What does this fold into?
Amino acid sequence: MSSQPVNTRVPSKIELPAPTAWPIVAAFGVALLFAGLVTRAAVSILGAILTVTGWIGWFCDVLPHEKHESVPVSAEVVPIVTTRPEVARVDLITHEPHRARLPLEIYPISAGVKGGLAGSVVMAVLAIIYGIVAYHSIWYPINILAVGFFPTLGTTEEISAFHLDAFVIACIVHLVTSLLVGLLYGAMLPMFPRRPILLGGVIAPILWTGLLHSSLQLLNPSLSDRINWAWFVVTQMGFGIVAGVVVSKQERVRTWQHLPFAIRAGMEAPGAMDEKNEEGRQP
It folds into this structure.
């Protein structure tokens, strides 16, 4: 068998597609074309002219033959060297992040759960006090939560009486709603660190009471008429103050924004592991 020598000579030039600016011109024209729909017709006219011009120039660069340019080739091999013989370790704890994503610290989920449960107890007590004072029954404010599920509870006497099914539904609605609002407090209060009680105990209850009042006026006017909205605001403020205090007293945890993206994403990236952990793994 005869072996033929392999030609390893590097060409002095290679042909590459020629650069062109026409795609950018066409894209800018399309942007102006749509921008004129909300501004002036002259902007759309200019955009149409630039779009057509960019397309024509772009087509001329590739049709009927694609334009190329010669680029010289360097046969010199550039060695890749480094002055760092070891992998640079990532500083996991950066006390002064260059670009902060607020809040820097947040409350854990358990803080929102604790705040929601504590607020639910206070709100239930205030509601029961209103039921005793206004209707001489502790079941009236409880059954009000379940009236939407039981249309047969139409009169004040029926609502003031004990109903096991309505009591179970009311407890579930009250507990789930309180936990959700407590979690919402845990997420919002770190963003307003100066006056958390003002936000959670006054502003937020007034806002969602107004939203609920306007919604019930449209969805269920008869139920809206049975609710004492002034006392409803008092119970919501009691919930908000207690939940806000409980959440704000919990210890905050620092967010992971100071950690590298590879660690936050759960990837094992070179240089992102602690040297001590690596030394401990060695036999």
Observations:
- The chain has two domains: 14-72, 105-256.
